[in-house]
Amino acid sequence: MYYKKMVGKKCYLSPINPENYEVYTKWVNDMEVAVGMLFSTSLLTPMAEKQILERLARQEYNFAIIDLEKDEVIGNVGFPMIDHLNGVGEMGIFIGNKDYWGKGYGVEAIRLLLDFGFNILNLHNIFLKVYSYNKPAINCYKKAGFKEAGRIRGAKKIAGERYDEIYMDILAEEYESIYIKELVEKKNMAHK
Known about the structure:
Blueprint: E1 6-7, E2 11-15, H1 21-28, H2 31-34, H3 46-58, E3 62-67, E4 73-83, E5 88-95, H4 105-119, E6 125-131, H5 135-143, E7 147-158, E8 161-171, H6 180-190
Parallel strand pairs: 5-6
Antiparallel strand pairs: 1-2, 2-3, 3-4, 4-5, 6-8, 7-8
């Protein structure tokens, strides 16, 4: 069962359902999916993945990404770390279903999360980390409005090569609301 917290044109964000652990286990053990993620060195069993999903579901600001048309989970997105005092949040995204890669679902899910982060949580800065070899992810983040903020050179060694860990961020004033602003305007018009 999924619940429409933030709704776009292609997908929506829902609280994470830990019962999806079997499909997530397939995704996280697929090296093509995992190579861009921090967990690429881990062997995750169904029970370990269920515990991870249960932990993510307990944390307030992690969401499942659900295909709007098919009503099926395709990945997740959220804030693994938020500094409420300073208004800074770290964002992470994972599209496990490879059928959805390169089709705009990641960009839309990120924009929905940014809308939530900037307009509901009142964050000032949202940042992420990505490895320099993950060109599709970098392009996705740029389309969503992120800019490179810095890098740690040679931070990742994979297949005998060294790659940079890139930090990208976006500020509240750089983001144009797509969902929350529309909701507020509808409420405003209803009361006139």
